[in-house]
Amino acid sequence: MHILTRAEEEVLFKTLKANALKECDPVVKEFVECTHGKLVTVLWGCRAQHKAMNKCLMALTTQADMDKLKIQYLNDLAEGKVDHAQLQREQKLKDEENKKKSKSNGPGVH
After folding, report:
1. What predicted TM-score, i.e. pTM, was given to this entire model?
2. N or C terminus: fewer CB in 10 A for the chain?
């Protein structure tokens, strides 16, 4: 029996979020388009689009969805479809890239 490490859980959560964003892309785009040219007025001017976006994302990132993803990952790991060491190397590279990007954006911009 394999217990997920924190790094594995983070990768799976990021995967879950990426999948949700992909599925909700049209709704996210509507919200983004609504925000163009607005500053403070986004709060009330794009309220409907924001609620729709959050509803879509929340519907696809439930604990049940995360549990399904974990089970699938563990099954793939048991069947040899997932290289645990490779997954850790890829995550480390992604983390290093993200650190470089955040540094290049300057202070306060993330």
Report:
1. 0.69
2. N
